[in-house]
Amino acid sequence: MSKIVFLDVDGTLINYNAKTPESAKLAVAEARKNGNRVYICTGCSKAEIEQRDLPELDGMIGANGGYVEDNGTVVMHQSLTREQVKHIVDWCNDRHLGFYLEANSGMYCNDWMLEQGPATMIKYATGKGADLAKAEASASGFVNSFIHLKGEDLYRSDVNKISFILSSYQDHLDSKVEFEGLEANTWGGKGEHALFGDLGPSGITKKHAIEVLLDYLHADVADTISFGDAKIDLSMFECCAYNVAMGNGGPEIKEAADYITDDVDEDGLYNAFKYLKLI
Predict the structure, then answer these.
(1) DSSP assigned state of 14
(2) Residue 110 and residue 99: Cα distance in Å, rounded?
(3) N or C: which end of the chain has fewer CB within 10 A?
(4) CA nearest 194: which of 249, 246, 224, 231?
(5) CB 224 within 8 Å of CB 4
(6) DSSP 3-state assignment of 90?
(7) Cβ 269 vs Cβ 23: under 8 Å
């Protein structure tokens, strides 16, 4: 029986230097050749994904569930309103927090992101095991991918979600109060060590997006497998029939997994695909 596979991207399909191991590319290609469907399920928006060197896929879930695409067909797209974006932009600017707007058309940042972003992304990469030289190169590439906007040009109506640098964990806690009608998450670290907060439309999760896609495909949840490495991937685990944690994953995701494979850079995806007889 063919399977429907959902892959987180950072730390799962690609490593923390934004490189896809050749073994992972081979695993995806062979699994699809064998009749399985493979989708990415990520917090990234389409503009960011299009900058990555990824294998051919059957589609994607992006923006932590706000965007669903199957073989080029947009199945669902739920974004923030212009009024919500303005509220978040003004709130972050008042706090001098760097942020970027994640849209399918591009990633748009404020002045503070250009100032704070490089050091924050170096912390992210080194925290995931990259050496300093690779972390600096990765951070530079990431920040250089932004489109810098000022003033009212940041008040956009095509934004899937917004990520902002945390000066402290209190910024995330305050964002949950200030934007109680939105989904508030953190990423880049565990708990109070998180580096970023993010805000997206209410009700949007990876779990919800998978359910929407399965309904569109007329597919059975019993045929689903998910792969992840972080707490944000737990919503995938809640709805998929079988769940795999990467060896480089955090303790929460490993505790919830049916199987723990090797690290992303130690052929973890390929080895799990073999174990599950996808290839």
Answers:
(1) B
(2) 6
(3) N
(4) 231
(5) yes
(6) helix
(7) yes
Residues 6+ apart with CB under 8 A from 144: none
Q: Which pair of structure tokens corresponds to residue 123?
A: 């912390």
Strands 67-70 and 59-62: antiparallel
Can you tell me the distance from the alpha carbon of 76 to that of 60, in angstroms, rounded to the nearest whole number? 11
Nearest to 161 by CA among 176, 189, 182, 144: 182
Tell me the domain boundaries of the chain: 4-78+204-275, 82-200
- Token readout for 5 is 């596979």
Task: Show the tokens assigned to 39.
Answer: 């989708």
Q: Which amino acid type is present at position 119? A: A
CATH of domain 82-200: 3.30.1240.10
Phi, psi dihedral angles at 172 (to 5 degrees): -65, -45
DSSP state of 161: E
Cα(214)–Cα(224) distance, integer angstroms: 9
Query: CA 167 to CA 172: how far, in whole Å?
Result: 9
The H or E element containing residue 38 is: strand 37-41
Would you give per-residue pLDDT tens digits along the chain (279 residues)?
A: 799 999 999 899 998 777 899 999 999 999 999 999 999 999 888 988 988 889 999 999 999 899 999 999 999 999 999 999 999 999 999 999 999 999 999 999 999 999 999 999 999 888 777 788 888 888 888 888 999 999 999 999 999 999 999 999 999 999 999 999 999 989 887 666 899 999 999 988 899 999 999 999 999 999 999 999 988 899 999 999 999 999 999 899 999 999 999 999 999 999 999 999 999
Using the structure block, give the residue that is written with the tokens 């199987």.
259
| Structure tokens given for 60 | 């994607």
* Rounded Cα–Cα distance for residues 41 and 64 (Å): 7
